[in-house]
Hints:
Blueprint: H1 2-8, H2 12-50, E1 57-60, E2 65-71, E3 75-79, E4 86-90, E5 94-97, H3 98-128
Amino acid sequence: xxxxxxxxxxxxxxxxxxxxxxxxxxxxxxxxxxxxxxxxxxxxxxxxxxxxxxxxxxxxxxxxxxxxxxxxxxxxxxxxxxxxxxxxxxxxxxxxxxxxxxxxxxxxxxxxxxxxxxxxxxxxxxxxx
Length: 129
């Protein structure tokens, strides 16, 4: 029997090695497609929550919108309406920082307009030559 396995070129150790390699490869793909992006999202959310300052407009995970009045270590106080209703939340309850998102969008629009203007000036400069 052993002679037959040697003659066909298969052995039990070769199959085991390829199976281990396949498992390692599957865990690598799982890490890069699922675990790593999730960790990046968590890190970005934590940075956003730590960057919240007084005067920012935020939305909580419950959908409550308001303006930040006070920021402490793990708590924030927001004003939710014109009636000056103030509510205290844990920082982890912040879903989005609307002020930062608006600022980032305005900056992106300015950069796009500057690129468009530079492209038009470059095109106009080539037309004169």
